[in-house]
Amino acid sequence: MPGAGKTAIGRRLAARLGLPFRDADAEIEQAAGMPITEIFARYGEPHFRDGERRVITRLLAGPPLVLATGGGAFADPLTRSAIQASGAATVWLKCDLPILLRRVAGREHRPMFLNADPVQVLQRLMTARHPFYAEAEVTVTCTDESPETTTRRVQDALDASVPPRRLPVGLGDRGYEVLVGPGLLARAGGLIGPVLPARRVVIVTDESVGPIHLPTLRAGLAAADIAILAEIAVPPGEASKDFSRLHGLLEAMLGAGVDRRTAVVALGGGVVGDLAGFAAAVAMRGLPFVQVPTTLLAQVDSSVGGKTGVNLKAGKNLAGAFHQPRIVLADTDTLATLPARELRAGYAEVAKHGLLQGPLWEWCEAHGARAVAGEADALTHAVLESCRLKAAVVAADEREESAEGGRALLNLGHTFGHAIEAEAGFDGSVLHGEAVGVGLGLAAALSARLGHCSQEWPSRVIAHLAACGLPARMADLPRGFSVDALLGRMAKDKKNRDGRMRFVLMRAPGDCFTSSEVPAEEVARLLRDEGAT
C-alpha cells in the first residue's frame, strides 16, 4: 500500500542480499519520459497498467534483483500472473491504516490522493487490494519500528519461507494443482482465492479436527477477504459417511445461503473429504470444492482424484460421484497433530503407492519407519511422491474406465481391505488404512499362490508393514472374520465386472495388474489359512 515503505525496505534488503534494487514506478517514469501523474492524466489507468506490466516483466526476466512494484501492480490480474509465473518471491508489507495515514501525509501529488480524503482513499484501496496481496508468498506486518528492523524481519521471513510444491492433475479444463508443504492453512485464502468463482465458502470439518485447525484456516481465509457462510462439523469416524449425515449436511449448507458460486471447503481426513465432496457434487447439481486434507491418509490418497461418496450397508463408498476439487492444499504441518495410530494407518496407502510405483517401495523399506515416527522430511517425501503417482494415474483414467490397469490399480489391497472394514461395521475398531495394510499382505499372498510373483514377496510386504507398526495379517486385527462374510462383501465390490470379483495383483513392485481370473475357492483358501473361520 502507499506508505508501507516498499522502496525504503527494498533498498535495504537489496544491500543486505548484495543485489541491485529497482523501483518499478521510477523505471516507468524513465521509460515514458514523464511522471506517473501525467501518464494517468493523458492516457488513463489501462494504458499505465499495460506499460507497468511490460516493465515489470522485463525486469523479472533479467538477472536477480530486488524490485519494489507500484501498489496497484500486484492487484492487476495480468501483472500478478506475470510476477507469479516468473518465479519471483513475493513479499507483502502489511500496515494498519493509522500507520499508513501518518506516512502518506504530504503526498497529495500522487494521482490517487489528488483532491481526495486520504482516509477514504486508503480504506477503498485496502478493500480492493488486500485480497490479492494475500497471494504473496510472505506477509510481514509492519509497525512504527525502524526500517532496519523491518528489513531484518523481511529477510528472516524470506529465509524461513518454504514455497509449496505444486503437482498438476492434468484433466483439461477441470485440471487443478495439488500443493504440498508447510504453513498452507495460514495462507489458504491467497492460495485458493484465484480458483474460486466467488469469495465465499462453507467449511465442513469434524469435531476433532475443527478445534485444532479451524482457527488457522479461518484467519487464512479472512486475509484474502473470503467470507465463511457456515462452519459445519460432523462426528469423526467412518460412521459419518452415510445418507442421514449427508442429508443433514446439505440442509445446513442450503440454510446458510449457498449458491452455485459458493465453494465447499473440506477440512479434515478422508471421511470429511468424501462426505463434503459428495455434498458439493449434488448440492444445486454441483458446487466448487476445495480439499484441505489434514491426515496422512487423505493427503496421500483420498483428497486427490475426485472420488466422493458415502457408505451403504452393503459396502464402502457404494453411493458417490466423481467431483474434482478446484485445488488441494496438503499442509504437512497438520501431520504433526495426528495420533500415532492415524499416522500409521495413513502410511498403508504410501506403501501401496510404493508397490505400484517401484522405486518408492525401495524408499519405503529404507525410510518408512521414519515417516511413521513423524519425521517431517520423510512425511513430505511420502506425500509428494504419492500425490505425483496418483495425479498421473487419475489424469490417464479419471473415471476408472480402462479395460485393464488404469485407475483400478490404485485399489491394490482394497478388495480385501474394504471387505474387512465393512464387516467390522465402520465402528473404528479397524481403520481404513489398517484394513488396507492387511489387504496388501493378502494381495501379495494371493499373487504368489497364483504364480504371479515369488514366494518372498508376501513375507517382505508383511514384514515391512509390521515393522512400521501396522496390523499386517488378519490375526493382528482386534476381531475375527468369517470366510463367507468376507466373500459376500467382495462379491458386492464396485470394481467387479460381469459378476466376477476383480483383484489387483502384483508380479513385483512397479509391475501390478488387474485380473478377474481369480478362482473364488483360491481366495477362500487363502482367507482360511490366514485365520478366517
UniProtKB/TrEMBL annotation:
GO MF terms here are: 3-dehydroquinate synthase activity
**What positions does the domain 3-dehydroquinate synthase N-terminal occupy?**
232-344
Pathway(s) it belongs to:
Metabolic intermediate biosynthesis; chorismate biosynthesis; chorismate from D-erythrose 4-phosphate and phosphoenolpyruvate: step 2/7; Metabolic intermediate biosynthesis; chorismate biosynthesis; chorismate from D-erythrose 4-phosphate and phosphoenolpyruvate: step 5/7
> Mind telling me which Pfam families this protein's record contains?
DHQ_synthase (PF01761), DHQS_C (PF24621), SKI (PF01202)
Q: Where is NAD(+) bound in this sequence?
A: G270, V271, V272, G273, D274, T294, T295, K307, K316, T334, L335, A336, T337
The EC number(s) given in the record are: 2.7.1.71, 4.2.3.4
Q: Which residues bind Zn(2+)?
A: E349, H414, H432
State what protein this is by name. Multifunctional fusion protein
* Species name: Roseomonas nitratireducens
Question: What is this protein's gene name?
Answer: aroB
